[in-house]
Amino acid sequence: MLYELTIIIPFYNAQNFVKKSLQNTLSISKKYNVEIIYVDNNSTDKSFSISSDIIKKINNIKLFKTLKKSGMGPGVARNLGVLNAKSKYILFLDIDDFLEIKYFERLLNLIKKNNNNFIYLNKKIISTNIIKATEAPYLEYNKKCLDIFFQNTNNMQSIAIIFDKKFLLNHKIKFEKNIYEDIFYIFKCHYYNLKKIGHFTNNIYIKINHQSSITNT
Predict the structure, then answer these.
(1) CA-based, 20 to 30 A from 33: which of 58, 73, 92, 101?
(2) What is the Cα–Cα distance from 79 to 66, expressed in whole angstroms?
(3) DSSP 8-state code for residue 109
(4) Cα 118 to the chain's mean position, in Å?
């Protein structure tokens, strides 16, 4: 079955976030033709068993586990999710973040109408009781102006972006086995992109900043 969008959610020792994440993705999966892929990156807690028990009877929510020899890090898990995705478009979502379902139909309509290699989504960031809306980095980088890519302070996270799966595979764009692997991933997307960059203006992606996250530590 071909879905309209695949949402890939990597996690590691996330038993405190799995149930809340599944509440969000279950509500999306019931209403829309969307595939949800959770990828466990060798957790040592109960993350895998908790998620497995909840989604075992739901067809469009899947659970995978990375091999130890493949290495650690969210990028390894995302690569596995992309290879198993059964849709044209990919969205990476962190396990402790969620999506505003009220904007979802509008997002799917935008995807259908456009032929972008990637589409930036607006985010709302929640951190230490402060809520602020942030616009996506709607920047037209390409081969001719990549020097600006390095000079500017940009959001280099791979989350909150819709990617064309065929574009990623054709140019062999995948995550390396490192922390902050997102930077080179986003660089390569702009390097190979020859189309207009899409932009979804509603704050559909809700980013929760935790002091213990990879970015903050």
Answers:
(1) 73
(2) 10
(3) H
(4) 12
